[in-house]
Design a protein that fits this description.
- The protein is α+β, with helices and mostly antiparallel strands.
- It has two domains: 25 residues; 131 residues, Roll (Endonuclease I-creI), CATH 3.10.28.
- The protein is built from four helices and four strands.
- Strands 1-2-4-3 form a four-stranded antiparallel β-sheet.
- α2 crosses α3.
- The longest helix is centred in the first third of the chain and has 22 residues.
- The chain is globular and about 50 Å long.
Length: 164
């Protein structure tokens, strides 16, 4: 009986540790940037200027996630901004993903200036960025789990597009 309790205790500890470690990332924004810096050598705004021009963004929408809030209903939560980019020569989902991620890394490490109303980087904050192919263009989701940060990202994206 005592062996079963010990085994159950070890199993529960492992499960809790594995569960929390898999879902929460406790690295600072600077640590995220340093961990990704080696992938970003040579990636600058100048390498893919079309990604960083306000005229390339056709529209901005709120990035919304739906979470279960009861047995039947889902609740909508603001996560940031969804930017729709038009097609451009030599742009692929992968090129956009790397360019925007590396811009965020460079801004956080201080090796590149942020853009006016930068929708892709927020000093002192690590943002979740996901580029996707969408019809004949692309979408770039810039998200945060923090509601205030998500609002700030959406507002910056709207200001970025309005500056064209």
């Amino acid at each position: 009986m005592k062996a079963n309790r010990v085994l159950l205790s070890v199993w529960a500890t492992c499960l809790a540790g594995c569960h929390f470690g898999a879902f929460w990332d406790f690295r600072s924004p600077a640590e995220h940037a340093k961990d990704n810096a080696s992938r970003c050598t040579g990636y600058t705004i100048a390498k893919n200027p079309a990604v960083f021009e306000p005229a390339s963004v056709e529209k901005v929408e709120p990035a919304i996630t739906h979470v279960a809030s009861g047995p039947i209903q889902d609740e909508a939560r603001l996560r940031g901004a969804l930017l729709y980019l038009g097609p451009a020569p030599n742009l692929t989902r992968e090129v956009i993903q790397r360019a925007v991620e590396c811009h965020e890394v460079h801004v956080l490490l201080g090796s590149e200036q942020e853009l006016p109303s930068d929708p892709y980087a927020l000093p002192g904050t690590w943002l979740d960025i996901d580029a996707q192919s969408q019809g004949d263009g692309f979408t770039v989701a810039v998200r945060s789990d923090d509601f205030d940060t998500a609002q700030h990202v959406l507002e910056r994206a709207r200001q970025f597009v309005a500056s064209r």
